[in-house]
Amino acid sequence: MQIDLPVVWAAIIGLGVFIYVMLDGFDLGIGLLFPFFEGKGERQVMLNTIAPVWDGNETFLVLGGAGLYGAFPVVYSTLLPANYMPLILMVVGLIFRGAAFELRAKATRTQHAWDLAFIGGSALAALCQGIVLGSLLQGIRIVDGRFVGAPFDWLSPFSLFCGIGVLITYATLGCGWLILKTDGELQRKMRELMRPIVIVLLGAIAVVSLWTVIGLPAVAHRWFGSGNLGWFLPVPILVLLCVWGIFRAVRLKHEATPFLLTLALCFLGFSGLLISIWPNMIPPSLTIWEASSSHSSQLFALVGTVIVLPIILVYNAMQYRVFRGKVREGDAGYH
After folding, report:
1. Number of domains observed in the structure of the chain
2. What are phi and psi of 109, to 5 degrees?
3. What is the extent of the structural domain holding 225?
4. 24, 66, 144, 213: which one has the fewest Cβ atoms less than 10 Å from its Cβ?
5. CATH at residue 298
6. For residue 332, is it within any domain?
7. CA separation, residue 112 to residues 34, 119, 290 (Å)
8. Domain contains 335
């Protein structure tokens, strides 16, 4: 029995991207929530909740990029030139966010400036990730395995709205994380913020879904013209159930449930994306098999991944276990 390596590698990269969104999403979301909380003590608690884990969260972004380079070089060599500007700006945002995280802990007079850098870096990184997603969904012009579009093809109303959608998603994840990790007045404020932000998120999901179906005929056919609607219909139904569950959990003052259900929303959104583009790696026509590297290259890289990936997963699981529990004002901070 021969293993379909392109499918295996598509699953590995998809897993890496989803874990990145799940983990780095909530710590980028905390940067997006910073403007709503001016108190120095509250901001320090918010940062302390992610201080032990934020570096490790970005590991999976590296996994996704390295996996594309090794397993799907055509995707790597077309997706990057089609999105040079947003990808460079994303890296700039991550650098500013990381530098602000380190330097604000030592700053006194300039701490407010580093707070602004933390907010701006988080917002820029999240926005650019959404723009790249929108650019991918709307399609990239490829001829003979090369990008032949214009430098600003990525810039469109649809991609910008996808960027805003990712901002809202990450802010919701950050809010759910802080409900889980804090208590007292800060937790109460997060519960109050969770309800309106989830409504905005549901609206963004609805707009992106409708815009995708109306504006992209291939996606519309995938959902409604392929005879598989019955299989796909649970996705939007489960989205509504998750939103209802978040409202109920906030009302009943559950601590972990809002965050877990927001993660479920992200998973459902990711599932909807895969349904819309499968089996293409780059819509509208580049499939995972056409984009893949040689069998020997994928097999060689898979051996290393099978060894390294479990170590990364165990390490990340251990750091969350070690630093579990509530974070309170006055606890040892980030130094």
Report:
1. 1
2. -70, -30
3. 5-322
4. 144
5. 1.20.1630
6. no
7. 11, 11, 50
8. no
Residue 185 token pair: 């007045």
Amino acid at 110: T
Q: Which pTM was predicted?
A: 0.90
**Main-chain phi, psi angles of 287, to 5 degrees:** -85, 170
Per cent of the chain over pLDDT 90 is 27
What is the rounded distance in angstroms from the CA atom of residue 79 to the CA atom of residue 86? Answer: 11
Say if CB 178 and CB 30 are below 8 A apart: yes
Q: Is residue 328 situated within a structural domain?
A: no
pLDDT in tens, 88-128: 999 999 898 888 887 877 767 777 888 898 999 999 999 99
pLDDT, tens only, 43-62: 888 888 888 887 777 778 88
Residue found under tokens 């709503």: 36
Strand partners for 280: 287
Residue among 200, 216, 177 at smallest CA distance from 324: 177
In a domain, 38, yes or no: yes
Higher pLDDT, 94 or 227: 94
